């Protein structure tokens, strides 16, 4: 019984981790480095749904980062700014403005 419980918990953990991983934007950091001429640590991408979070490119893919709780990520300065109605730019909005 104990082994069954451990197995179920392990599978649930794997499912959650896989789901979280797949919800990240499909950004190819290598392509962005080639297109922009910037280094990996200079490329930031808005989170797909939470304006307080964003991703930074690394040579191993995207790393999720977070602004201070009263700030939101603003991709046009690659930094965090005070929260306002017009500065919450999610990944889909950002991609539509920057094809």
TrEMBL record:
Residues 26-90 form the Chitin-binding type-2 domain. Keywords: Signal. Transmembrane segments: none annotated. The keyword Signal applies. Gene3D superfamilies: Chitin binding domain. One of its GO terms (cellular component) is extracellular region. The keyword Methyltransferase does not apply. GO terms for molecular function: chitin binding. Pfam families: CBM_14. InterPro entries: Chitin-bd_dom, Chitin-bd_dom_sf. This is CLUMA_CG014445, isoform A. It comes from Clunio marinus. The lineage of its organism: Eukaryota, Metazoa, Ecdysozoa, Arthropoda, Hexapoda.
